[in-house]
């Protein structure tokens, strides 16, 4: 839809060319959310695609993924690491057509902070380290698991931009299993869980059923029953997300069942 309050679109060619922050500024990723509903406070869009960041590159510490990496680009990355098997399935947990996957960005999905954000699930599961750029250019790192604090709420400061996410080598080396449940065949995720196992033990990330991602860590792989119990304890009534994509109690049941399935899948 048209965003009637927008007076200007800025297309910075580099991070150094980002404009000074002013009220009404809105970071534009792929725009698949921004252009889907009125944005009455928006006056100026800062089009991050113009930055021309490389979608992903290997670094000594791991895989650096630009916030502007499109979901389709992420799904087709060719990196020889066990955890890469999670990338395409995570993208396809967002039930959009190729038109959405070709424009929606990893950063936009994280910053929107919907409970069913598959990039949030993936980056929390893989110990993603977010690189955030403040309006004055100052950089700070924040673990993905600490980024989303509530429904549609992140730890981004005003004017701060998510620039990239580093997935460390140790996380890339982990085996992973993803499970997702929706109320309807092509419905938004009601429960989206990722389990990983490797050095450091077993980790379970629970999203969609909860308002924010939950991460449970175990020294070794517990039994399916123990994992189900841990998930049930974590999914307390206050953390359950209530929307049209499923009743909170049903989402909780699905998440607990999927947690057990993940433990069983990783045992075999
Ligand atoms: C058919 C369809 C299905 C969808 N299904 C899902 C789903 O299952 N799960 C889900 O989570 N979402 C879903 N969405 C919502 C949305 O499209 C996705 O979350 C998408 O990933 C958002 O990415 P984007 O790049 O288009 O973000 P945009 O619309 O560009 O931006 C989203 C928000 O993030 C901010 N932002 C974007 N990039 C940055 C950045 N680098 N730094 C700081 N702030 C930034 C924007 O200002 C805005 O507030 C769906 C949308 C459609 C149309």
Automatic annotation (TrEMBL):
Top-level taxonomic group: Bacteria
Gene Ontology MF terms in the entry: FAD binding; oxidoreductase activity
Domain FAD-binding PCMH-type: 1-172
InterPro entries: Diverse_Substr_Oxidored (IPR051312), FAD-bd_PCMH (IPR016166), FAD-bd_PCMH-like_sf (IPR036318), FAD-bd_PCMH_sub2 (IPR016169), Mopterin_DH_FAD-bd (IPR002346)
Transmembrane residue ranges: none
Name of the protein described by the UniProt record: CO/xanthine dehydrogenase FAD-binding subunit
């Amino acid at each position: 839809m048209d965003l009637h309050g927008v007076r200007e679109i800025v297309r910075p060619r580099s991070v150094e060319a980002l404009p000074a922050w002013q009220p009404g500024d809105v970071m534009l990723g792929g725009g698949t959310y921004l252009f889907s509903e009125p944005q009455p406070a928006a006056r100026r869009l800062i089009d991050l695609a113009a930055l021309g960041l490389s979608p992903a590159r290997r670094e000594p510490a791991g895989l650096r993924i630009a916030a502007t990496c499109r979901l389709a680009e992420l799904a087709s990355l060719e990196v020889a690491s066990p955890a890469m098997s999670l990338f395409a399935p995570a993208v396809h947990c967002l039930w959009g057509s190729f038109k959405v996957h070709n424009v929606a960005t990893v950063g936009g999905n994280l910053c929107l902070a919907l409970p069913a954000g598959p990039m949030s699930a993936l980056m929390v599961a893989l110990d993603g380290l977010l690189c955030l750029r403040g309006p004055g250019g100052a950089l700070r790192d924040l673990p993905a698991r600490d980024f989303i604090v509530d429904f549609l709420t992140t730890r981004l400061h005003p004017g701060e931009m998510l620039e990239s996410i580093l997935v460390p080598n140790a996380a890339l080396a982990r085996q992973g299993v993803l499970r997702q449940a929706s109320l309807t065949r092509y419905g938004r995720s009601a429960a989206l869980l990722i389990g990983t196992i490797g050095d450091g033990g077993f980790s379970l990330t629970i999203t969609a059923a909860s308002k924010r991602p939950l991460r449970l860590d175990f020294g070794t792989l517990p039994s399916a029953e123990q994992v189900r119990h841990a998930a049930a304890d974590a999914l307390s009534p206050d953390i359950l997300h209530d929307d049209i994509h499923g009743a909170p109690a049903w989402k909780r049941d699905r998440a607990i069942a999927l947690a057990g399935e993940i433990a069983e899948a990783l045992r075999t």
